[in-house]
Design goal:
Length: about 475
């Protein structure tokens, strides 16, 4: 029952293809550190491969046929892709699903302030997003990504901290010499959420004596460092303090995805949960040229905070897009839509926790995911007594085993930690509500939810191969 290491059977051709896919994956990570950036990157990629915007087809009254490829974006944060298959949609479709949001720090709506104790620093106040260990985010070089939307509708895109010539930002921490009391705290309290404030400046604005005598000048003198930052924001990015109210700015680790290890067998990067699965799903969808059952790839926002909101999997976005697709193929009615949803098969692609020998006591070794042993299946998720779980049936698992084995895909099965220790959820249970077959799949990740996460190149490659095999597979 022990799963083989994927590296053991690769030939020269396999290694060449693996490196090609993983290079594209690292580029994807570098260009998509937020959900908006991911969607932009995906749209640019798939349009170059012949995908058309569904809304454009609707406006032009286009009738879709076998082989056509369309996509729909929702609020610039979620995207669904379809490749029309040979069989009627009412017989069901094959779905690859993943999420493109990742744990991070979000800038608050009224964020900019100058410290009162020393008048030495300007800060941006933040609110962490998703499950993070707060102490991991201090003393790192950080970048600011996102958008500022002005009242006139102008969109200003920010990406500061990634280029070599850019400044970076950081969150301070107490030096060990003075940290006796801090070190006695529990890990959850070592750094409080309200202490995750980003240092963005320390140089006061210099103003003339004449200006300093005005009311506005006096305000600038009393908040000279904040005033200096505001002047930079106005001059370089053309927005003012009040524009923060309608901004979405995300604080993420600065720096590019890197190969890791002397053997370059791993990838170290921010946001691999769950862009590892998003990229491989998208790439597989592009490389499948013909399908019997329509192939859907849905990449969504907000999974890290419960799949809520208009861009999360719990919204009607996916169902609405599917209804529009059926209308464009001439197959829409409510009964056909319900039949399609209930007869579909899905791989809910999300990462699994890689076994870490340094913390072996948290894992049940026989049922843990291991780096390098291929794509990973979690028959059930949830926590403790499978609470909040999607639990795939045995028939579906057997169906997938045959598809993968026939195509030589290396895979493994796992649980997320020991029964009374771990747990977690994905978008699987939401799609399962339609009655379709759904199982969690993905890749193992070391350092999951940390600013820098680690995956195996072999697992990325096997996931890509597995998604192609699934897309071309027969229905259950």
């Amino acid at each position: 029952m022990e799963r083989k290491n994927a590296w053991e059977n690769y030939k020269e051709k396999d290694l060449k293809n693996l490196e090609k896919i993983c290079k594209e994956y690292r580029d994807f990570l570098d260009h998509g550190k937020t959900e908006r950036e991911c969607v932009d990157t995906i749209v640019n990629t798939i349009e170059a491969q012949g995908y058309r915007e569904m809304e454009e087809c609707i406006r032009e009254g286009v009738s879709l046929k076998k082989g056509d490829r369309v996509y729909s974006v929702w609020m610039n944060k979620s995207i669904v892709m379809f490749q029309v298959g040979k069989k009627p949609l009412a017989e069901g479709i094959n779905i690859l699903g993943a999420h493109i949001d990742s744990p991070r720090l979000d800038v608050k709506q009224i964020p900019l302030y100058q410290d009162r104790e020393s008048a030495s620093y300007a800060y941006l106040d933040t609110h962490y997003y998703g499950g993070v260990k707060k102490y991991q985010w201090v003393t790192l070089p950080l970048a600011i990504h996102g958008v500022v939307i002005k009242k006139d509708g102008t969109t200003i895109e920010l990406n500061v901290g990634e280029n070599e010539d850019d400044p970076v930002f950081f969150i301070s921490d107490l030096l060990p010499h003075l940290a006796g009391e801090q070190m006695d705290k529990k890990a959850a309290k070592v750094i409080e959420g309200e202490a995750l404030d980003l240092i963005v400046g320390s140089k006061p604005l210099v103003i003339s004596k004449k200006e300093a005598e005005t009311e506005e000048g006096k305000k600038k003198v009393s908040q000279a460092i904040k005033a200096s930052v505001l002047e930079i924001l106005k001059e370089q990015y053309d927005f003012e303090e009040e524009d923060f109210i309608s901004a979405e700015l995300e604080i993420v680790p600065a720096g590019k995805a890197r190969e890791a290890g002397f053997d370059r067998s791993m990838i170290l990067a921010y946001g691999q949960d769950d862009r590892a699965c998003a990229f491989t799903s998208m790439r597989a969808a592009l490389d499948v040229k013909s399908v019997d059952r329509t192939l859907c790839t849905i990449l969504v926002d907000k999974e890290e905070i419960g799949s809520v909101g208009a861009t999360g999997m719990k919204s009607a976005f996916f169902e609405n897009a599917l209804a529009e697709l059926m209308n464009l193929t001439g197959e829409y009615n409510e009964l056909n839509l319900r039949r399609c949803l209930s007869r579909s098969c899905m791989l809910s692609s999300d990462v699994s926790a890689a076994f870490d020998p340094a913390f072996a006591s948290c894992f049940e070794k026989k049922n843990a995911a291991y780096l390098g042993r291929g794509m990973c299946f979690n028959k059930f998720t949830g926590s403790r007594g499978k609470s909040g779980s999607n639990d795939a049936n045995a028939e579906y698992m057997a169906h997938l085993r045959k598809i993968l084995d026939d195509q030589g895909v290396v895979y493994q099965t796992a649980e997320l930690g020991k029964v009374d220790v771990g747990g977690g959820g994905t978008i699987a249970y939401i799609l399962a509500l339609y009655g379709m077959n759904v199982i969690d799949s993905g890749v193992a990740v070391l350092n999951m939810h940390a600013p820098w996460e680690c995956t195996s190149k072999a697992d990325i490659y096997e996931a890509y191969k597995g998604y192609i095999a699934f897309a071309q597979g027969a229905c259950l």
